[in-house]
Amino acid sequence: MTPYPSLPSSHNGLKAFEAAARLMSFTLAADELHVTQSAISRQIKQLEDELSASLVVRKHRAIELTPQGHDLYRVLRESYGNIEAVMASWKDPKQKRIVIKATLSFATRVLISKVRELNERYPDYEIVIVPVIEEDEAINSSEYDLLIFHTRFKKRYDNAPDITFLREEFMAPVCSTNVITEDTDLTSILTMPRIHPTLDHHDWKVWLTDVESPPKKPVRNTSFLSLDMALSACLSGEGVTVTDLLLVLKELQRGFLYCPEHAKLQHSAWTYYIHQRTHTPVIDDIIDWLREETAKEIELLKQLALQYHWSGVIKAQD
Fold it and tell me: Name one GO biological process term (predicted).
């Protein structure tokens, strides 16, 4: 009698299901396993029939996991990870690396400032930080341990496998302290030249919808098509931009950037998530550390909000 009577007779179905559940795509699973999409679909259907359980909800160009599918994927992920670790230990040792991909603005404005701490926390690893532009597309690649991305498609990633919510954005206008005077207030800030990281001026439009009396006089607009360029222009005194205050927290603390008193903070349409590609205790620890660091940054933002009487969504975090 077999010691594992509930296991399916063929492991191909388990392998096909694990790849499809991890990539959330029959097409990508087929590419990874070098078979056809129909073969993936057929193997998973045979697995479902043998287990007498529904594992996948098939939708047009998308799939979702059922509760049983989530349970099975979680166990397979851990088991395959353990097998991979054992087999990798048989090979000649190589220099260990932790590859973190992140949206460009997060990589340059957050992760760079944390490199020293990462090196101290993980002295046996080389830390590799890779900036990405198309985050939603990067999630389908396999060349990273962690991907920190922000997206407008919140519903797509909530409760998805291997996805961890990190934070919302906290949007408000900022300008260089070099261009403000004792009389500078929220009203005068709104008459300054406006700097935009996108051609559609989306951040400014959304933020101005909450302003009780937006200025009627036309203002100068300049677009840079990059948040980092927009912030550089802002820091050099070229105007005012609406941005995520957590990305410029150090500049606000050190007095390089100014957010006017009584400004209203808003969430944007974008949300930050973490996608975990590699499942090891070290990567689990990095995720916990990133969440702890983010919580500390939000606390610092709350203190600044109290000091400068900022209102809005920051209060909702209390």
Answer: DNA-templated transcription
152 CB neighbour count, 10 Å cutoff? 10
What gap in Å lies between CA 227 and CA 177, rounded to an integer? Answer: 19
| Closest C-alpha among 69, 145, 23, 132 to residue 31 | 23
Whether the CB-CB separation of 54 and 48 falls below 8 Å is answered with: yes
Nearest C-alpha neighbor of 263 from the set 215, 313, 227, 228: 313
pLDDT interval class at 316 (50, 70, 90): very low
Query: CA-to-CA distance for 191 and 215, rounded, in angstroms?
Result: 7
- Give the number of C-alpha atoms closer than 13 A to the C-alpha of residue 294, restricted to the C-beta side: 19
Mean per-residue pLDDT of the chain: 89
The confidence score (pLDDT) of residue 318 equals: 40
Rounded Cα gap, residues 118 and 111, in angstroms: 9
Residue 54, C-beta contacts closer than 8 angstroms, at least 6 positions apart = 48, 66, 68, 69
Which tokens is 87 given?
A: 């087999």
pLDDT band at 1 (very low <50, low <70, confident <90, very high): low
